[in-house]
Every structure is written in structure tokens, then in C-alpha cells.
Amino acid sequence: MENPVALITGSAKRLGAATARHLHQQGYDVVVHCHHSFDVASRLCASLNDQRQDSAKLLVADLCDPKAWQSLAEDAVMAFGRLDVLVNNASAFYPTPVGDITTDDWHILMGSNAQGPLFLSQYLQKHLARNQGVIVNMVDIHAERPLASHTVYCMAKAALVAMTRSLAIELAPQVRVNGVAPGAILWPEAPLSEQDKGDILQQIPLGSLGTPDDIARTIAFLVASPYITGQIIAVDGGRSIASASKA
């Protein structure tokens, strides 16, 4: 029997790589996608193929480039001849203080976090429907609890939340669409002060960072749950409800 196939965008490292590894362990063949991180993504594919021959393939595309969406979708299906799961994980993240926001910021943040996922979902929905497939979108708790100086990013993630719920209605019953909203899982690649880290940890009822595997397991749960669609699961140690209680 053919193995099910998952495309995980932005899966060279961090949460995307953890998701690729976890789904691979569950028997999926995986299409690893990257834009800039080719060397890291190549090593990930090699390690997965060492575990199971010809079970991982790498595609490179810029999700902010409209010309890339259809070709990425077509190449992902051709990689193994089918597609069962799309994980829209790729995401640009950086501050955009009001007064300094540029059209390039809009292009990059909206493109990677909302526009790319929408058009990939559109191009792939017929292929996913053939296998009662699943789309899982990587949202963010800050889609509903905005982060200061990150207006464009928060807008993009809020759009992704709306897209998740809208597509869940439109693509049912053949395709289910859900989202995962991570809280503090890994520290940002841009360095934070120890004071900033402490302030964040104080906002988390469970008192610690999560792990990439927490996100990967939640995605796998949504993929394997045939009666869940249109839902956003916060994986944040209780941070979102603690923030709500202080509002």
C-alpha cells in the first residue's frame, strides 16, 4: 500500500522540522519545503531517507512569490504521486513598529503567513479531497492577543485564523481544516534579554516553554481525528487564558 504523504512548508528547522520527523515516524512520506535553508533541509531529508529509503523529498520555493505557488503544489503532488496532508507552517516573523512599516513588510509577512497558505490550499484541495485529506495551519496565540510592534504579523495570523474556519466550511466533507496556535515554544531567533524571557515565563501558568514535539503531536492528533474541523488549538501552557483573565 502507498504511504500517506504530507507537505510541510518551512520544514527545514524548528517546528516544521519537528513536524516532519514526527509524521515520518508515523509512516508518512514527507515533502520538506524550504526557501533559504537549503543545506539544513537537505540534511533533514537525508536523515529521514536513512531511516526509510525514498521517504523524504525536498522542494525549494518562495511563498511570497505568486509564481511559485502552483509549481510548488504540482511538484509536491508529483513527489510521491499523492497528497494527504498540507501543513502550512512557513512563517516570517519580525517587528514592524507603526511609523516604520513598509510595503515590503506587508509583502513578506502577509505573503508567508496568509497569502501563500491560501493559494497553496487552493491549488492542492482537489488532490487532498481524493484522500479525505487534512490542512493544518500554523497560527499563533497573537492572532487574538496582539503583540506590540508586530501589527502586520498579527494581522497576517488573524487572516490565517479566518481562512482556517472559512475553508473548513467550504472544503467539507472531503477536506478537514484546522489550526494550531503555539505559545512560547522556542525563543525567537533574534536574541531576547533574560529579563524579557523571565517576563514571558511569568505569563505562562505551566511556568515553562513548550517543546517542538508538543506542536508536532498536536498536528498529528488533528490529522488523525476525523470529526474535528474548523478548530484552533492553543498549545501555550495556558498563556492565552491567563492573559484573558488579566484583561
Automatic annotation (TrEMBL):
Family annotation (SUPFAM superfamilies): NAD(P)-binding Rossmann-fold domains (SSF51735)
Enzyme class: oxidoreductase
Domain of life of the native organism: Bacteria
Molecular function in Gene Ontology: pteridine reductase activity
Enzyme Commission code(s) on record: 1.5.1.33
Matches recorded under PROSITE patterns: ADH_SHORT
Keywords (A to Z) from UniProt: Oxidoreductase
Positions in coiled-coil regions: none
Keyword Oxidoreductase belongs to the record: yes
Similarity remark: Belongs to the short-chain dehydrogenases/reductases (SDR) family.
Protein name: Pteridine reductase
Origin species: Fluctibacter halophilus
Phylogenetic lineage: Bacteria, Pseudomonadati, Pseudomonadota, Gammaproteobacteria, Alteromonadales
